[in-house]
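G., the chain you wanted modeled:
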Amino acid sequence: MYVKTLLSTVMCTSLICTSPVNAQSFEKPPTLKASQVLPTKLLKGNGFEVGEQVLNDGYMNTYILKTDYGTLKVRGTYYLVKRITEVEPIRYLDENYGSLTVAAKGVGNTAKGIVTGPVKGAQKLYDHVSDTDKLKKTAKSIPGGIVGIFQVAADGVSAAADFTYETGKSIVSSDTEKRDLQFDKAVTFVEKHTLNYIGYNDAYRSLAKSLKVDPYSLNTILHDEMKRVASVEATVKVGSKFAPGLYSIPGVGDANKYLGYAEKTATYEDPEELEELNQKMLRTLGHDDESKEEKLHLEELLKNASYSPPMRNELAVALKSMEKVTNIDTLINQAAKVKTRTVANFYLQAISKLAEQHKVLTFKHIVPDLLLPAAVSNAGELIVPLPVDHLVWTPEVARIFTYFRKSVLKAGECESAKVLLAGTVSSQCRKELTGLGASEIIEKVKFN
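Predicted structure as tokens:
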């Protein structure tokens, strides 16, 4: 859906420049078979199975993933692989941390009732500090507001939070109006320092790294299990029962290698330090005479919550490597406008692929006025990276590539065009794209 929306948006933008595509035979998005589009190792494994019927919308595939923890509808092969890699880690956490004891009392399997025993207030601390919304609501209901939450921290973990408590009080004014203005700052302070002091953040990242999973995953089941285990480790120091390395959990190693993100060490670094690095890289992009609009695009990208810190880091590295390419602000603007994690991932993959190609081809400029990343090399070749599953000849695809032809190829900017696909393309779509000027269409290109 998100790629279809992107292409449809480009289509609408391009209508002012092109005539409607002539009446012709378009394809109906097909129903595919999982056994024909996925590697065997991703079809079925310990605790998961992918349904044979796969729906395609002209760009992306939608899969039905059955797991021991529920059935999921997953759009896009990239996210299917992510969900598969998370099945075994969830099982591992459930089986190995289901009977932890603290002061001879059991710890539950859910996020509620995380810690019992001598560490008074630890559960209350966890509930309030690790949930921003709950923290804000609680602070507003407690006499003394945010200072009361600092007291919870101090009571919950004793001397470990004393510094947090005392420093926290100093940034909260006794003046009600000023205190309200400082509220968000104080909340951020509580989250960062209290969770750091009790070791929760380190425990969570360490656990994610051991399991080779994304600590920013949107998988709520995995997230809850990791919060539970990290909270126990941080508050009562039960010892290092953390998961073994990547290849000792059956299936996880192969799937992560296929996905390609397990080697990205930035995923497990301190997010605040990583964001500082991201800002330094991004703010040095471009030229001294960049326009006010370009600076706004950059600030918008830096604040866009659709990107996790590791995603923004990868994006910053890609953009930095192409900073001398004309119209680089086009890519910054495109990336800054996204509204969801899935669309952010689409742009991240496409822009990263352009950066990879730039090392070999050397781009002259980014193609302006398009909502899909594309660039022209010094040799006059247009490169269009599309991280889609299966491309078919629909009216949307026809219009966007007709626009490419009229705005780029016929304008004499380049002599040829190369389309790079993460997945595959139908025979009719290949024929039509070739007729529009695509000199090369490469399937199954690695984008991660």
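The chain has two domains: 89-257, 265-442.

Shout if anything looks off.
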